[in-house]
Specification:
Arginase, Chain A, eight-stranded parallel sheet, binds manganese (II) ion
Length: 314
């Protein structure tokens, strides 16, 4: 019988993600959930360093099954098994101390490497999106070039120069491409629409061969087959799924550093995540990033984030 996670949390005072066993030392497990409590890469509106606490707290009231997509018709027998079927652990937070970007990136890379060495898949709870670079470096060392399914309002391929830094939360994609961590033919960005991006940023991504989709592209039925082809290609090798919560419209998830109007609805995003469940091999790493629970709408945003994390699992 599945334990009542809320009751268990009330009894212990602990809030591991989805009530999973807490296991701080890397060990041989199918997968681990890791918090990355860092927001030193945020340019504006900080708060993502508190994201892992809010996400874990929000995960306790929702069970371990993703919400069913169909109760009627032919889809009714496709109710997913979700986390209930998985033997994962919560590995706690990565010790990303708040004072150095480079140190935080190394901490993420080191901790993810240690778990990956034990054969674990990883789900990271952010934390600002720069931390994804540390996780990609770790998975690349184990698996080689990765396919990337990236949901975001922003392309994150900027240059940090104007801010006097090599890295901030809008630069990791460029670094990952330049470092050769990604297979560009298997890399797709979905939901891009931020008006601030520089034309140079888009040119860089296009030159690299990255597929990019705005919310309007997604709604164009004539492009549906192309979209499904792009998503399927991500998994023709080891794959990583990175979810920046600002891909959603601020109506659904306002507690992020840079909300951008015109985003996806929760239902649209969940639909876009379904092809993952048909991949022949599951993703090796995934993350849910940029939840900033110090900002307005934190509770609802955290709950949305927890449900989306569940949707990442078959
Ligand atoms: Mn991002």
């Amino acid at each position: 019988m599945t334990p009542d996670l809320l009751l268990q949390s009330l009894r212990t005072g602990l809030t591991p993600f989805l009530g999973l066993p807490l296991q701080l030392e890397p060990s041989e497990v199918p997968g681990v959930v890791l918090g990355a409590p860092f927001d030193g890469g945020v340019l504006n509106r900080p708060g993502a360093r508190m994201g892992p606490w809010a996400l874990r707290g929000a995960s306790l009231g929702i069970g371990r099954l993703p919400m069913p997509l169909r109760l009627q018709g032919n889809g009714a027998d496709e109710i997913p098994r979700g986390f209930a079927a998985l033997d994962w652990v919560d590995g706690g937070n990565i010790p990303t101390r708040p004072f150095s970007i480079e140190e935080a990136l190394s901490a993420v890379q080191g901790t993810v490497t240690a778990w990956v060495a034990q054969g674990a898949r990883t789900l990271m709870l952010g934390g600002d999106h720069l931390m994804t670079l540390g996780a990609l470096r770790a998975h690349w060392r184990k698996h080689g070039q990765l396919g990337l399914l990236h949901f975001d309002a922003h392309p994150d391929a900027g240059i940090g120069e104007a801010w006097g830094t090599a890295h901030h939360h809008g630069t990791w994609m460029r670094s990952a491409i330049e470092e050769g961590l990604l297979d560009p033919r298997r890399t797709v960005q979905i939901g891009l629409r931020a008006p601030r991006f520089e034309s140079e940023e888009l040119a860089f991504l296009a030159d690299a061969g990255i597929r990019m989709w705005t919310p309007w592209d997604l709604r164009d039925g004539r492009l549906a087959a192309q979209l499904q082809g792009d998503i399927a290609r991500v998994a023709q090798g080891p794959a990583y799924v990175s979810l920046d919560l600002d891909v959603l419209d601020p109506a659904y998830c306002p507690a992020v550093a840079e909300p951008v109007p015109g985003g996806l609805s929760v239902v649209e995003l969940i639909a876009l995540l379904q092809p993952i469940h048909r991949w022949s091999a599951p993703w090796v790493g995934a993350d849910v990033m940029e939840l900033a629970p110090t900002l307005e709408g934190a509770g609802d945003s955290a709950r949305v984030a927890a449900h989306l994390a569940l949707q990442l699992f078959p």
